[in-house]
Amino acid sequence: MSDIGLWGVPLAVLGGALRVSTPFLFVSLGETITERSGRINLGLEGILVMGAMSGYAVSYWTGSPWAGVLAAGIAGLLLGLLHGLICNLPRVNDIAVGIGIMLFGTGLAFFLGKPFIQPKAPSLPSISFGDWSSLPQLQSALQVNPLFLIGIALAFFLAWAFRSTRWGLVVRMVGDNSDAARAMGYKLNVVRTLATAAGGFLSGIGGSFLSLYYPGSWSEGLSSGQGLMAVALVIFARWNPVNCFFAALLFGGAGSLGPALQSVGVTTGYYLFNAAPYLLTLGIMIATCSTRHALAGAPGELSINR
Amino acid sequence: VHWGLAFGVLFCIAMYVLVRHTTWGFALRIVGGNPRAAQLAGLPHSRLVVAACFLGGAAAGLAGMVEVAAVHGTANASLIAGYGYTGILVAFIARQNPIAIIPVAILLGGIASSGGMLQRRLDLPDATVQVLQGMAFLMILAGETMFGRFKIFQPRQAAA
After folding, report:
1. Residues A270 and A262: beta-carbon distance below 8 Å
2. What is the SS3 assignment for A201?
3. Do B125 and A89 touch (CB under 8 A)?
4. Which pLDDT score, from 0 to 100, does residue A230 have?
5. Which whole-number Å values give the CA distances from A149 to A21, A152, A297, B160, in the listed order?
6. pTM for the complete prediction?
């Protein structure tokens, strides 16, 4: 019963999508908030690594993984706040500061995280949705982390909040037309700083997933560019939180295609299949873009659109 | 010192001449500075942007070639060292001036390569240099806000 042949491939892809997509989901939701307010924070990669480190450290000290998740969020919040405050200064380029934050965050995480490479911190529990099945592959594929469920809820909550709450409206207005927002008397810098900080909070939580659930330990090569890819996913998802969820799932699934094929014996082109998510993203971006107008749904005040 | 440095310096000078002293470079700067004016002047907007992207990609590819041919001698996965991202910041700190890239790049390369020795000699923990670099970047980028606010920072000429 345990030998299911080629059916293992879609199962492994599904499991990989459920397992890998959570950090993408959180980081891209955070970046959606930030970009909707009209700023780009490219430093989410650094925030992700910093969140992974601090989440692991606090989980190790306190013995509670949820305290680690909270600490990761707060670390991300602080770094996001730093980005927001620096970008409040006139003439400062948010993209350049973002790359600076990225280098600073990863450097700081390596600096502070050296003592935590060896010890084992308690990791997050997982919820099993596969008990109804007798297939061990299906059971392991449906091991879902609570953070993933929180992420899904958050995606729908954010979509609702952007559409029909006052705060969402303010953030969207600041991002789409700063003149209108200023005329209404909203303080642009305050809104944007708060949006960046909120984005940092979510990215930090995404980082804690990396170190506390999958792969489940802190090491320096932990993130490998996932934060940056999540920023690209936001554009891919057209700044829509619910689309972010699907984009993260698609990306996670495409990323686990290579290992899944390898496990059933298809080893040719292993590295090529590892590039599948990037090829997929590039392909869809090219297919849906146009030279005549800005991307549909893009906030008007983003510095790349102005 | 290997030939990569000579390549880099030559490329910087060539880019400086190309961007500052040719008609093509002038057109490129108009497209970058004011796309609408460029369109009015009938410049081939997208063609210039794509060509500039080609040149940028060529420079990055050259850097990779030097890294393999002169520094490591082999191609392996440890080549990924984040030079690309640091390079973007070098361009920002040099204020998009190809000549200014030379000292900035040499300074940053010096910090990065002397970092290991410095940490051992002074008994600093790992990644101290990365934190230093990150802080320096943030300070310099935040310092952009000073530009034009004091007399010594006044631009000598109106930006072209």
Report:
1. yes
2. helix
3. no
4. 85
5. 11, 5, 26, 53
6. 0.85
For testing the chain A interface, which of B85, B86, B145, B150 should be mutated: the one with the most A CBs within 10 Å? B85
Q: CB-side exposure of B50: number of CA atoms within 13 Å?
A: 5
User: pLDDT, tens digit, for every residue of A69-127?
Assistant: 999 999 999 999 999 998 888 878 888 888 889 888 888 888 888 877 777 777 777 77
Work out the percent of chain A whose per-residue pLDDT is above 90. 19
Nearest residue, CB atoms, B128 vs list A89, A93, A111: A111
Cα(A159)–Cα(A153) distance, integer angstroms: 10
Tell me the per-residue pLDDT of B83-93, one tens digit each, with 9 for 90 and over: 778 888 888 88
A residues 242-301 closer than 8 Å to B (CB): 291
pLDDT at A20: 82
Q: What is the mean pLDDT of chain A?
A: 82
Contact A242/A156 with Cβ under 8 angstroms?
Answer: yes
C-alpha R_g of chain B: 19
A154 to chain B nearest CA, in Å? 31
- Identify the H or E element spanning B114: helix B98-122
Determine the distance in angstroms separating the CA of A86 from the nearest CA of chain B, rounded to an integer: 6
> Of A24, A41, A38, which is closest to residue A81 (Cα–Cα)?
A41
As given in the structure block, the two tokens for residue B143 are: 């310092």
Phi, psi for B103 (deg, rounded to 5): -65, -40
